[in-house]
Amino acid sequence: MRAVCFDEFSARPVLREVPSPSPSPRGVVVRVEATGLCRSDVHGWLGHDDGISLPHVPGHELVGTITAVGGDVRRFSVGGRVTTPFVCACGRCPECVSGNGQVCRNQTQPGFTHWGSFAEFVALHDADTNLVAVPESLDAGAAALLGCRFATSYRGLVHQARLAAGETLLVVGCGGVGLSAVMIGVALGARVIAVDIDRDALTRAARFGAAGTIHSAGLSRSAVLDAVRDAAPEGIAVSVDALGREETAAIGILSLRPRGRHVQIGLFPTDPVIPMGAVIGKELAVLGSHGMPAHDYPGLLDLVAAGRLRPQDLIERRIPLDAVPDALVAMADDTSAGGVTVVDLGA
């Protein structure tokens, strides 16, 4: 098969022929139809993930058709159109048994623990636990994006923060994950305020339904907090840091009204200092969100089926597999909150 590979961290990836995968006993092989290009793929390529072995094929957001099935798979068969969470659970550890496969102690992650979806075929493990059936009518790019950024945002807002219609949501950082949170918040009936240093990102947030935007470039923390209070005098019920910086997390937490809930989705390069005085004094909840187990996808898919959530609207560029090396390198050099790129394999 053709796949995008790198033999050294930070060395330019190349498209070449490599052996096609075979299914593990509880796994499947999927012919990739589309796959998202995510900043997490860049971090893996740069060597920021110690679980990657070389040579490596990145890619973790995908949709495709099953072409081979392991002997122990019972719920899925050849020909099924599927996606999968980027955190694939084992289905057998205590976390999985309790319904929390997103923090499985034996988790696998395509594009990180094993070869991923920047390829014509990808192997996925523990299929009965991890695969999600996708209707043929759903846009391939939209289906691919459900595996990571939309699932993580949905779990954070719905299952962790319990965001309710009529509440005010603050989203700090409007890249792909942040804009997913904006779109989901709007779909749930929340009033959404978006914060970013990039005006184009805020224009996208407004297009996706944000009721207010705050351009934070050059502003002090106190000035941003003042702007949040002006935009939401009713108070922020739920905040999301979709970027993963000490300052953005602090803004999210300090913006909350008493008993508010902060969701941390963005990953930090180093452990941050958190304003725990506010957490204690206002009885705030600080919650993480790390993917979503496959069995929790129906609620997300229902929003999509009802037309209240359109992941495909986030896509601004579709590229072929042979354009991935250039796109990966360009993303590493670009810190702006650009539109989402999807790799279309035309399967």
Automatic annotation (TrEMBL):
**Positions of the Enoyl reductase (ER) domain:** 10-342
Give UniProt keywords alphabetically. Answer: Metal-binding, Oxidoreductase, Zinc
User: Could you say which cofactors this protein requires?
Assistant: Zn(2+)
Q: Which domain of life is it from?
A: Bacteria
Cited Pfam families: ADH_N, ADH_zinc_N
| GO MF assignments | oxidoreductase activity; zinc ion binding
Q: Tell me which SUPFAM superfamilies the record gives.
A: GroES-like (SSF50129), NAD(P)-binding Rossmann-fold domains (SSF51735)
PANTHER family in UniProt: ALCOHOL DEHYDROGENASE-RELATED, L-THREONINE 3-DEHYDROGENASE
Q: Which family does it belong to?
A: Belongs to the zinc-containing alcohol dehydrogenase family.
Protein name from the UniProt record: Alcohol dehydrogenase
